């Protein structure tokens, strides 16, 4: 049977893999990337406000002060979601809007609560289910200044637990899907080793005066795991029975192919790459321990999980939240790992030994589409974690040079449309052929937005945002294509 992304040719006839009839899809965004209104109605700075205003940290020197202005345009955003046929919207709460200083003894900002309450009501009135991320990287700056944010486990966990409880109390009657943390790998590694994300700590003194990339990412990862487990525990003990929702964490993870498919060391390095990127968090959650490969390489730099922590963390996912974008070729490195290494002593490459490219270039240096990798990773996760219910919480692409195109060209985003055809097809195959239990899908992103250290140059939206003309929103071709795709793939019976 020849298989190419959702279309299977059997005895000369073409069949489409189907997604289950109860499959739900929609779009994703995050507060700092879209809201703007950075100093309105009591909001105080997050670490991303501070980081993006530090010269040299964001490529085009921009920040999220205005972004897509979604704080003032919730009606417009809901109208486009509805127009696109989305039934699900993943967005994140801005912690510094809700508790401007962040801490458990700091005041709660009623205006922040009211803003999200109204937004959730309006989404539901439009027939769109809210899928809420508690933490998508915009830590109140004060908490970082006060005690180092996630570098201080006890303080951070207590403050995060308080924030989570406030969110469950206020929004839980209407929100049935919660994500505790978005991509803890990014918070830990990009924020505390590479220094590419806020708060920008790293061992590299050319980039930042302080930071220790050999220890801090592992401390932060530990903190985030414990904070996740604590929030889930609070939800299950205090809210779940009455509110009936579900909660999980969202992990990023891209697929790995061996640089030399004949070299057992490269094949092994692929597993190690997935373990360092994904199983660092997923193994404690599903198996109650860190992967052996990480313990072996990192020794006591990987803070052990004590038995109370294991009890909190093990079994703490009601669903597996999966963010997925691309794949790499992986080549093992010889010798001892560098103390600063976070990847598992291996290289990420775009070409294999024979010069084959993993996929076409995009506007992001780290992202090259490779749709079959999506199917393979869905299967890999399912095998390793016992066929959990998977929600794809992000998937999407930027386009090389998109920002420099004319408006007509930009709206005709065939590269992105093809990305979604291939990726949604690969997911349908994983579901129909491999038995993967994937139930929801949210494309990244509803609209172009602040792409972190890449600023506004890399666009991920299915909606064009004109930053020069009052953040005007115009649908791109891909928005139409996604609707048609799910219409085709989701079973009608
Ligand atoms: C994810 N990397 O971030 C985030 O969840 C989104 O907020 C973001 O806009 C989206 O993917 C697109 O980038 C990532 O450098 C950012 O490997 C950077 C990386 C990975 C994920």
From TrEMBL:
Family matches, as InterPro entries: GH (IPR017853), GH_1_N_CS (IPR033132), Glyco_hydro_1 (IPR001360)
EC class: hydrolase
EC number: 3.2.1.21
Stored Pfam families: Glyco_hydro_1 (PF00232)
Coiled-coil segments: none
Signal sequence interval, chain numbering: none
Functional description taken from the UniProt entry: Plays an important role in cellulose degradation. Shows hydrolytic activity against several glycosidic compounds.
Catalytic activity as recorded in UniProt: Hydrolysis of terminal, non-reducing beta-D-glucosyl residues with release of beta-D-glucose
Record-stated family: Belongs to the glycosyl hydrolase 1 family.
Family annotation (Gene3D superfamilies): Glycosidases
Single Gene Ontology MF annotation: cellobiose glucosidase activity
Originating organism: Talaromyces stipitatus (strain ATCC 10500 / CBS 375.48 / QM 6759 / NRRL 1006)
Protein name as catalogued: beta-glucosidase
GO biological process terms on file: cellulose catabolic process
Keywords: Glycosidase, Hydrolase
């Amino acid at each position: 049977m020849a298989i190419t992304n959702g279309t299977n040719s059997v005895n000369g006839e073409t069949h489409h893999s189907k997604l289950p009839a109860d499959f739900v899809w929609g779009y994703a965004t995050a507060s700092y990337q879209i809201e703007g209104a950075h100093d309105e109605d009591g909001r105080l700075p997050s670490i991303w406000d501070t980081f993006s205003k530090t010269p040299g940290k964001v490529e085009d020197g921009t920040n999220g002060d205005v972004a897509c202005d979604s704080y003032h345009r919730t009606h417009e955003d809901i109208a486009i979601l509805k127009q696109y046929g989305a039934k699900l919207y993943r967005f994140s709460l801005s912690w510094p809007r809700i508790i401007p200083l962040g801490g458990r003894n700091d005041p709660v900002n009623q205006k922040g609560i009211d803003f999200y309450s109204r937004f959730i009501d309006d989404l539901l009135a439009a027939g769109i289910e809210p899928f809420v991320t508690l933490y998508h990287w915009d830590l109140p700056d004060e908490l970082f200044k006060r005690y180092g944010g996630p570098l201080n486990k006890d303080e951070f966990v207590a403050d995060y637990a308080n924030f989570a409880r406030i969110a469950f109390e206020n929004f839980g009657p209407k929100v049935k899907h919660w994500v505790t943390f978005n991509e803890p790998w990014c918070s830990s590694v990009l924020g505390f080793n590479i220094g590419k994300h806020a708060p920008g700590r790293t061992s590299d003194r050319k980039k930042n005066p302080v930071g220790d990339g050999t220890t801090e990412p592992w401390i932060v990862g530990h903190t985030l795991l414990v904070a996740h487990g604590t929030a889930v525990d609070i939800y299950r003990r205090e809210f779940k029975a009455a509110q009936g929702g579900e909660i999980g964490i969202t992990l990023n993870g891209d697929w790995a192919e061996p640089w030399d498919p004949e070299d057992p060391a490269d094949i092994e390095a692929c597993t190690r790459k997935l373990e360092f990127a994904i199983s660092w968090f997923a193994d404690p959650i599903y198996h109650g321990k860190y992967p052996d490969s990480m313990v072996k390489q990192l020794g006591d730099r990987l803070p052990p999980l004590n038995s109370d922590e294991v009890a909190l963390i093990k079994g703490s996912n009601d669903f597996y939240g999966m963010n997925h974008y691309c794949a790499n070729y992986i080549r093992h490195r010889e010798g001892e790992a560098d103390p600063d290494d976070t990847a598992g002593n291996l290289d990420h490459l775009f070409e294999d030994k024979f010069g084959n490219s993993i996929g076409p270039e995009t506007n992001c240096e780290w992202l090259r589409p490779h749709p079959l990798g999506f199917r393979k990773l869905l299967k890999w996760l399912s095998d390793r974690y016992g066929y959990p219910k998977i929600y794809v919480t992000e998937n999407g692409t930027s386009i090389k040079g998109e920002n420099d195109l004319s408006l007509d060209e930009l709206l005709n985003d065939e590269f992105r449309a093809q990305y979604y055809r291939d990726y949604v097809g690969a997911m349908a195959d994983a579901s129909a052929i491999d038995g993967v239990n994937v139930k929801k899908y949210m494309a990244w992103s509803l609209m172009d937005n602040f792409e972190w250290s890449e600023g506004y140059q890399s666009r991920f939206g299915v909606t064009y945002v004109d930053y020069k003309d009052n953040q005007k929103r115009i649908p791109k071709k891909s928005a139409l294509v996604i609707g048609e795709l799910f219409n085709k793939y989701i079973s009608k019976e």
